[in-house]
Description:
The complex is a heterodimer of chains A (429) and B (255). Chain A is an alpha/beta fold and 429 residues long. Chain A has two domains: 45-113 and 290-428, Rossmann fold (3-Layer(aba) Sandwich); 116-284, 3-Layer(aba) Sandwich (Dimethylsulfoxide Reductase, domain 2). Helix content of chain A is 37%, strand content 21%. In chain A, helix 4 (116-125) crosses helix 13 (261-274). Chain A is globular. Chain A starts with a strand and ends with a helix. With 255 residues, chain B is an all-beta fold. In chain B, strands 1, 5, 6, 8, 9, 10, 11, 12, 13, 14, 15, 16, 17 and 18 form a 14-stranded mixed beta sheet that branches. In chain B, strands 4-3-2-7 form a four-stranded mixed beta sheet. Chain B has two domains: 1-76, no CATH class; 109-255. The A-B interface holds A 77-79, 103-105, 120, 123-124, 199, 201-202, 204-205, 207-209, 211-212, 215, 217, 220-227, 258-259, 262, 265-266, 269, 310-313, 317-321, 330-334 and B 12, 14-16, 18, 36-40, 93, 112-113, 131-132, 137-139, 176-177, 180, 195, 198-199, 213, 215-219, 237-240, 253-255.
Amino acid sequence: MIVKDAVCPFCGCLCDDIEVEVEDDRVVAVTNACELGTTKFMGEKRLKGPILRDGDEWKDITCDEAIRYAADMLLSAERPLLYGWSGTHGEAQCVGVHMAELVRGVIDNTSSVCHGPSILAIQEVGHPGCTLGVVKNRADLVIYWGSNPIDAHPRHLSRYTRYAEGFFLENAFRDRKVIVVDVRKTETANIADEFVRIKPGGDYAVLSALRAIVQGKTETIPRTVAGVTREQLIRVANLCKSAKFGAVYFGLGLTMTRGKYKNIRNAIELVSELSRHTKFTISAMRGHYNVYGSNEVNTWMTGYPFGIDFSRGIAFYNPGETTAVDVLARKECDAALIVGSDPAAHFPRRCLEHLADIPVVQLDPYPNATTAFCNVQIPVAVTGIDAEGTAYRMDGVPIRTRKVLSTDYLSDREVLSRMYALMQEAQER
Amino acid sequence: MKVTLAMKPAAKSFIPIEAESIVPKNFLAGTDLSVWRGNRELRLDEVFSVSVEGDAGRAEDVEVVLSGETFRLKRVGEYMDGGTITILGDIGMHCGNFMSGGTIEIHGNADGWLGREMAGGAIVCRGDAADYCASGYRGGRKGMIGGTVEVFGRAGDFLAESIAGGTVTVHGDAGDMAGAEMHGGTLVVHGDCRRPGANMKGGSCYVYGTAQGMLPTFRKIGTVQHEGHTLIRFTGDIANRGKGNLFVKDYEYLD
């Protein structure tokens, strides 16, 4: 059986033109997807059933026992941490927020270690953004700043920018200019019309200089700024000003380097400044396929996009204090539920030391680095493969992922709903 | 009146304790107050050994002394409007948030957001202050609007972010982005700091040491004499409105 128009649950591009061939409840071929997406669809070696740590060994337990363990763990904790959420569908994220409020815990998603700074900047100065379709059809200048789509979002270039047709562009490939700004010559830099190489940590200074140049205050700018010559800065500013429609896409090279959210704020303010001359937009290259969704769900339910502390019964938000890395590094939680992410593969050692000291339950289809820190792991269905649900693309467009095959695994939403029901019962007693 | 609060050793000592009830004014009505450890509400005497000497009729006459492992204590002195709080050791995050009067003295180090959005009064920190000392809140336009903060040790990153009034003095070095988004008030750093005055549009920032990674968008005006120091005067940030004043002893660009 061939499933057409399947949605790829890998990166924030959420490509919705995938063809998946299924035989005997197994994916045997994938068309249109990039290498990353294909690997995810073809993924094997899932965990068979829930497991419980028993000394140095793993013991198989039933799903009911595993769910009961997680509910009891969260209810008895003084400050539980509920982390992850970007690798699951919106319906499961909703249950997660309800759970965090009920147990008065801290709920955080993976944006606190990726585009959280972008959101902090947006909270300061707003977001002049647009959907990917607008860029595809109109943009004659695209800037990739601190992002490398050829490796991380392989189809971004072919679906929306460099290699895409544009309705309002006669010859999109010729008419569309691409500028890449990075600290090293990446694969994407090789296909750019202009490559700006910045010294590490110099993004903020370069953005400030560009803002001043766009305003015509060129004389104050030193001969070089963070390794970039004044001549090149003026050339880039002119390219931007002479474009009909410019789009900036930035990645973790901007959000996770020195200055963090101030870099993004500066980039947004450059875009605002350019919009006095022409039309310019800016958007984040979101990583997980539904990290945008976890920000959306958290925002409409709590008022805040990530790092929400319910310990006092109301939502308190302060990244740097209520975000997972900070909570773990400061040993400020006493239990953790991990859903749809792998913190052990990404967090600093100090965080993992605390994760090893507290009870941890993980919902994930595969054994991963975090498995080593778990007391219980519950395998679930993979959203977009054997579970369906809503995900948000990197530009904020919600797309319903489809089920391409059927398995006996429960979805994240089903497992979490049963956990939540147990907690509600316990609360009523 | 002198209120002494000595922290009792706790089994789960790593869970932070939110103690916004520890404000001099509240002790005029007795010590029947509560604090929160995670999601559990606790009586003040479950966490501290409490002793009270003398009595007082107004907040200005109340002195609160905190001792023990106070580094896990958050929000002490929040919305304080008079009286004195003395912390003999280190203090946790958000000490003196929104305070409008009185004095807080910290003998040890202060964690993040010391004197966040402060409007008046004085904070003296004998040790180091962590990130966001005398700053604003996430997404807020104005940080500190009045009062004084003096740190005798070093300060972390984003010192006095979005400051709009009042005075902040750091005797040691400060971290990255000191006085970012500054639009009023005065910031004085006796040591070195990185990228001072980023995107500032008003106020005055003095660096008696070296401004590292100096931003390219400050216009050099000349030299001035200030408190016995010869300083180079810049205006900026010209990427923004450029009406701020930045004075540095020395500077180096990331060129």
